[in-house]
Amino acid sequence: MATTADIKNGKCIIFNHDIFQIIEFQHVKPGKGGAFVRTKLKSLKTGRVLDNTFLAGHKLEFARVERRSYQYLYKDDMGFNFMNNENYEQIAIPESQINAPEYLRDGDAAEILFHAEKEEVLGCELPQFVKLKVGFTEPGIKGDTASNTTKPAELETGAKIQVPLFVNEGDVIKIDTKTKSYIERVKV
Fold first, then answer.
1. CA–CA dist 112, 124 (Å, integer)
2. CATH code at 2-62
3. For 65-125, which CATH superfamily applies?
4. Where in the chain are the domains?
């Protein structure tokens, strides 16, 4: 059994009959009273984030979570289908367990999180940045790079995103999958 001294960002614990990933933590030693650890936890099953405080030395149960590389194949009525690149095993994952399903293209790589003891799928994470081609947007205006104005654009996957005015149809752009926002235009 581990204690609060073993807490690190990214570690997973079993708490309230759920598996939570530690997003951030802070050890606090006030001048009066006992020390405690403030944490921000994210449920790997539901995605909800909660704040919790543990007393220093509190016993915690860590969960073994493995990240495995998979390749996205296709979507059907069972969900999104992925293939393990090592043994070619295929699994279907529901859309609710994927962090940014609107940016998936056939053949893209993703990491699938598994609870190691139960072999249970906990979620699927795309890389933090993806590069996609702009399928449709209004034409850009030459020299319009100084303003902070944006316009809607539809990507090759069908996802819609706000982009700067200088982005044109056919451009390849970099997108942050965590914030679902435009980062930069990419030279091809």
1. 4
2. 2.30.30.30
3. Nucleic acid-binding proteins (2.40.50.140)
4. 2-62, 65-125, 131-186
pLDDT at position 2: 87
Alpha helices (H) in the chain, listed in sequence order: none
What end-to-end distance do the CA atoms of the chain give, in Å?
51
pTM (2 d.p.): 0.77
Q: Which two tokens stand for residue 20?
A: 């939570």
Query: Residue 145's pLDDT band (boundaries 50, 70, 90)?
Result: low
| DSSP 3-state of 103 | helix
CB atoms near residue 180 (< 10 Å): 14
Name the class of domain 131-186: mainly beta
Task: Report whether 62 contacts 13 (CB < 8 A).
Answer: yes
- Provide the residue count of the chain: 188
Question: CA-CA distance, 48 to 156, in Å (whole number)?
Answer: 30
